[in-house]
Amino acid sequence: GDFDLLVRKVIDQYGCIVDIYGVKELTANSLIESASEFYSISNKFLV
């Protein structure tokens, strides 16, 4: 997806740490893998 490409570019080009919080079942594996750290949250936090 588009967001994993953006995360990789930000990490590679700018040396930033990108932490992502999301519901694992609703988050693309490519985005999870591209993040510096992925924090799984439960569905109860969704609005």
Q: Rg from C-alpha positions?
A: 11 Å
Q: List the domain count as a whole number.
A: 1
> What is the ordering of alpha helices and beta strands?
HEHE
Helical run tally:
2
Order of strands in the sheet with most strands = 1-2
What's the shape? elongated
- Summing up helix and strand content along with how strands pair, one would put the structural category as alpha+beta
Uncertain spans:
none
What do you see in this structure?
With 47 residues, the chain is of the alpha+beta class. The radius of gyration is 11 Å and the shape is elongated. The protein has helices spanning 2-14, 29-34; strands at residues 19-22, 37-40. The N and C termini lie far apart (23 Å). The mean pLDDT is 94. The chain has one domain (2-45).
Key terms:
47 residues, alpha+beta, 40% helix, elongated
